[in-house]
Amino acid sequence: MWCILNAMIVKKTLVLISFLVLLSNVSGKETKVSTTFVIDSTYSMDTEIGEVKRRTDDIFNAVYNSNSSIVDEFIIVTFNDPATGWGVEAATLEVKTNKRDEFETSLRDVKVLGGADCPEMSLTGIELGLNTSKPHSYLYVFTDASAKDYQKYDYVKSLALKKSIQVTFLLTGQCKKDKVEEQHTVYNNLATATSGQVFHILKQEISQIIDYILVNLNNKRTTLLRKTFQDAAECEKKYNFTVDSDLWEIVIALSAPKSLIDDDLDVIGPDGSPAEIQQFVSSQNTTIVKLKGEVGEYSISVTNCADVTVHVTASTSISFQHGFSSDKPRSLDETAKKPVKDKKSYLAIVLDDKEQEVILKTVELWNIDDDFIIELPLKLIDSDQQLYITEPFSVPQQTFKIAVKGLTKSKELLTRVSPTTIEYEEEMPKEKPATVTILGAQEVIAKFGEALELKCKVGGFPQPHITWEDKYNNTMNSSINTIALDEYISTLHINNVIENTTFICKAKNFAIDFDFVIVTTNKKFTVKKYPEDVAVEIGKSVELSLKIDASPPVTIIWFQDGKEINNNENLEIKTSSGSSFLKIKNAKPGYDGKYSVKASNGDENVEYKFNVILTGAVPALIVPVKEFVQNIMDLVEGDKLFQLICIATGNPKPTLKWLFNGITIEDNERYDILYGDTLIVKDVSSKSKGTYTCKAENEYGNDTMDYEVNVHPYPPINNFPSNSPIYLVDDQTFKMPCGDDMIAINSIRWYKDGHLIGTGPLTLNNVTKANAGNYTCRISKSYASYSYHSRILVGSKVKFLTEGNTRYITFEEGAEAQLDCSATGDPTPKTKWIMNNKIIEGGSQYSFIMKNNNNIPNWKNIKCCVSNEFGTIQRDFEIVAGECLMSLEDDFTSRQPILTTGNRKRSWPVFTVSNGFLRILKHRYFTLFCPESFISHNNENYGNNITTYCVGDSMFQLEGKAVLASEITCDKNVVPLAKNFNQICRGSNTTLIGVGFDVGGSFMSVYSVCFDNFTKTPLFVVHDIHKAIANMTPIHKAQYTRGNYLTLEYEDMYDCRNQINAISSFIGKSLKSDEKCCFMRRQLVNPKDVLPGVAQVATYHYLNVVPQWSTCGSENWDEVERRVRMYTINTDDAVPMWTGATSVRNKTPAIYLKDKLNQKLQVPQYIWRVVKDQLAVIHVNVPDLTLSTASSYILCKDICNTIPWMMYEHWQDVDKGFIYCCSIEDFEKAFDYDGYRIFG
């Protein structure tokens, strides 16, 4: 049984983790609620549903643009009448979501169907909406029919009150002949019970009431007054409500099943004069106004008030939740929303006051007409929860409201009323399976040996059988408190916690459920330190220890050879709390061997075994120290000294002595002995040569080590370096290097080719061949001598026989090109020829025959490299052909023919671009093409394509004659085309579109667009930038085209005068009609970033355009494009780019540009560019941006100043356009591109 429960516990744990993850998505501790739409989906409701669809964006924006909204999910429930035979359900949950797109899709998929008879199953739909919604939610019912299932009223009302959900009806009609009165009165009754409203409106007035709903979505709302007038006698009365300093956005709503007149409403302010009100919604049966109220008491009266409902609400930051329990509750979880009949109850109040400005004093119960019933004092029992309770009291038999009263810190009286009425739980619940929830923490740490109380909340009907069990399946003593007809609190009382265990609360009726608590005691047994094998020298002492942090405390016993140790003159044990120490004093034979120590506290025990080893005498031993001295030393006569080091070990410490050729050395003018282990030999000469011996000895043995010392008349020749010589030229003056320049002059001796040539610094003057050779600099210092070796070579540098490092050779068909690189130098130089980065054969001269084979560029990169040991010189040769030059600014228009290469597969020719000109080599062949027109020169028709070549001097060959290239045009403007590649580029709703030109059936793409088929906007474009780009814009700019994929009237949208309202609404201030700052077209692919000519025309397509805050703040994006352009031009290969526009901040209000047809285009919040393998650059495309608000738009770590070519101090100047950079990986995560593998 326990194994089965164990598996169930694992499953429950996973459910708990999932629940906690969901909770982590809700900001703060504030209770979140649902906004639920219960919609009649019969045929007659088509108009109403269409209006809700139209206002979806407004509904979501009201929530996401508010910092105070408590709504975090939206629900759609539809209801219909299955009895009509249309195959429909009585009620259907369409969607439950917090995502705009899911809500829009579900609402769009709602189909109107059926409804042949008028009453509909509205209460069944409301029941499903209530069951699906969170407590304290708002539920709105849209219907034009009465309730066919009115018999459900008592249950539906009980369910709404139990969850404190306000129900509001938007009635656009009523059945003409209801069979019973309750079919239409249930709506008023349910609205009254839940403090909701009934709006009788026309179908076309739905949108106005949605405006009122939006007010309720922005903030938490509280009811100040609700009154339904029964007859005309009540019209003369005035009804009061109070406005305190925490209330704002006060709204007064009047609704009735009859016509209303705006003048029927009279509101008197605190000073006795009429209060200022502003019309909000006005229709035949509904009047809603906003009150511009100050703090104080107001009165309200309604002329012709019969059947009129007045509802006064306000936004607030202070509200409360309540609960009832016959046992004293510790939290609201231990209570129910409705009291149990015939039982005294505690009333619990949890105040929702983030700033904790209010202290509650009392709670009053009012009847449904707001008349006083009883006042009860409140006591704060948990300040963290802001939980107050009353003493147990007898709950009134009638329906009532709860009004809490308290004082702010400034002593202002504050009153808040429950959102719905409260009544006894009398309606028998529906059959409900047992559910169990542990109250409090899922894991509890209890004090060992003390009592513990655990609680679980159980739901279910009929009443489940509730038990508590421990992990051994033992049933525990517990008590049950009924807090509702289908809710119970079970309490487990544990007298004495003595172990770590799990307690399970189980409930069973027709279903079984359970939950569990893991209880951990503070029992512990932790070993902090324990003894290990130890060696101790004879006559010395050693201490061993065992340290344990344990509860209950431990007993520790030490053993030697299996026998318990008692204190004596050589063994001493000291014990304190959790620690014990064994000290072995004056170690000697008999105290070595096997030891152990045992510790136990009754629950746990440990034993550690270890050995004690005695150590003693060690004979003398010399340890080689190679890092200080070699056993063979090579010295040079005249060195100041050398030293030998000898290190010996042993016990007792050995004595040392030095011998030379077997004779003991004493301190004298020739020898120094330092610290006994270092021998210094001074004034090195041939007599210093021999064997030096170090001898170490103690009473247990001795050891020796020999050092062989060789003394040479000059540094040995085999030490000279074989590479890295120093090259000197004739007549040069050169100072010879000798290690550290700070050494004393008299410490240096110079040798050349084995002969001493001088002392001190050495300079070679007027160098000749005689100075070549091997040099040694010998340095003698106070602690050692060492040498520096140099090899000197004397010669001359390489020099061309003729002047000039670059030679130009004019191309002549069939002529021989002779390239000369003759040069002098000593040693004789060698020549290497390189063409197109490949070595070719040749001596000091190279020649070849020039032929026109369309391959002239291959001859341009020819160079020779001439070198010897003294350096290398280079000469470049360039074959110069006649060129055709076309001005990038003046010669290119939208009638310029398309230049292509290739026959079967057309491609863009890449020409050299420099100094503002396109340079086409002489005799370079290519094709001119004019789509949907013909090639024209002097009004002559040359067909739509012709093969030609550069004649030279900016002239093209045209049917046997040379004409100016700029005079060859197309008969019509060349217009770019958009071609659907039928490829998904980012999700199923996207497609990849190429923008380019149709050249004789071959599509030549300039760039590709990832197009969103739903929003009809470009997500991003893909293009390459390389060295041959135009890098400037022609004077004759092309006209923008939109093609077949786009329908918007862009000229209207990009007229600044048409944008004033949208921008003013976003920035919160009015703009003048002549305002200069607005949104303009921004090409994602700049004309400067493509090949010059017709390719630039392709960038003037609206698939390549997004709105940018351009007229005020685009300087930095211009700078971004310039820097990316320069980076790419200096790169050998083409660099892929992705440039796009995105809106990812859902809670930021959107800006829409509109055309004359009222079609909308959303302005992206960000414009970005991803440079492959480098970074992503992001521009914040928001008007009126300040530095303080700009930081909230940074979605990933800024790395601009870590990329050398992107370092710039003005990136975050909001007047020039706020820019930041991210790694590509961070960008993909922040901008929802992770997982698409787009930027590879």
TrEMBL record:
Signal peptide range equals 1-28
How does this chain sit within the bilayer? Single-pass type I membrane protein
Q: Which residues form the Ig-like domain?
A: 433-526, 539-613, 619-710, 715-787
Name the Pfam families for this protein.
Endonuclease_NS, I-set, Ig_3, VWA_4
InterPro entries with a match to the protein in the record: Cell_adhesion_signaling, DNA/RNA_non-sp_Endonuclease_sf, Endo_G_ENPP1-like_dom, His-Me_finger_sf, HMCN1-like_VWA, Ig-like_dom, Ig-like_dom_sf, Ig-like_fold
Q: Which SUPFAM superfamilies match?
A: His-Me finger endonucleases, Immunoglobulin, vWA-like
Instruction: List UniProt keywords, sorted A-Z.
Output: Disulfide bond, Glycoprotein, Immunoglobulin domain, Membrane, Secreted, Signal
Superkingdom, taxonomy of origin: Eukaryota
**Subcellular location as annotated:** Membrane; Secreted
What SMART domains does this protein map onto? Endonuclease_NS, IG, IGc2
**What is this protein called in UniProt?**
Hemicentin-1
> What taxonomic classification does the UniProt entry list for its organism?
Eukaryota, Metazoa, Ecdysozoa, Arthropoda, Hexapoda
Per the record, the gene is LOC112056817
